[in-house]
């Protein structure tokens, strides 16, 4: 493998508290040096003057759909979408068909991803068999197979006793349970946030308490058991405050927020626009502002895409019938730049920490870093590039985005995975 020298960029690596002009030398697929003015010595040179060089982004929450719903997405198309978005590591959620609740399915996903060699794919196994919330899976088997966490994502573990036992079981492995926090009884068939917009449109709403009540219960169970709960795709101000207070008490709770919840409110539903139908739903401006502040003050640990692709025929149904979820891998960085960098909420270093270093730390992966010896997984970002979101040009099979037609700033220019560099 040829030696590559990436010269002239602004290297941002929160894992090494580095933010400044530097060169990056890659040898044999690993980071060999990060320093100013590294001599060429026969290396192939990539000039990235005016660009940001950062660790490859890490997504804790990606739906790849395979096996079972290859019409929505495949491991290959999902990995290509990740790469285009600057992600070199993604964590595949278990709501496949069948669910990722046993070793054979986990092994299949790992082997297919390794065969493709596009990005690193790690897996998140199911907490309960079939994600049905009735019987725990074999945690030992799933963690031994390489799962970095367990979740019934798409379904909450509604039974409090079962969740307690699951937290006790997962504590043995010092791994998190990722909870889709909602009380099914309060969701009650709702399709968007319960508020003025849902009332105006005549749509059944989902109150923010559907999330915060489950967050409060799981915090209490984590406190009781000493287990680790990670709350997926946080959406409400109440939930942010509950987690803030729990962290102050020393409860082992972490959480994530999506780019779309940072950038949009329930107003995006407009005239029954299914591209804005997500779960949890987009909520009020107060909720959005609380999420941004929670990210800024460290209450929210990281940003995750919740990339959830669907077919055209499903997503273009009427609002009640359309599935929840949008494609987010290819727009995540630019949406975060718009919501957090241009508004001066976060610095670039803080944003890279939330998109790469922190999720890698939660998943216990040696990713999200440009430390010497680490795999040469990195992204080159043009922070001033403007481009228009055109879902018809997505490489993901899912081509539905509430950001369609929006001019955004911040583009992924190059991606390097295991030392192999190319356009995304």
Polypeptide structure, described:
By secondary structure, the protein is of the alpha/beta class. It contains 13 helices and 18 strands. The strands form three sheets. Strands 1, 2, 3, 4, 5, 16, 17 and 18 form an eight-stranded mixed beta sheet that branches. Strands 6-7-8-9-10-13-14-15 form an eight-stranded parallel beta sheet. The chain has a two-stranded parallel ribbon with strand order 11-12. α4 (160-171) crosses α7 (209-225), α7 packs parallel to α8 and α8 (237-248) packs parallel to α10. The longest helix is centred in the middle third of the chain and has 17 residues, at 209-225. It is globular, with a radius of gyration of 21 Å. The chain starts with a strand and ends with a strand. The mean pLDDT is 97.
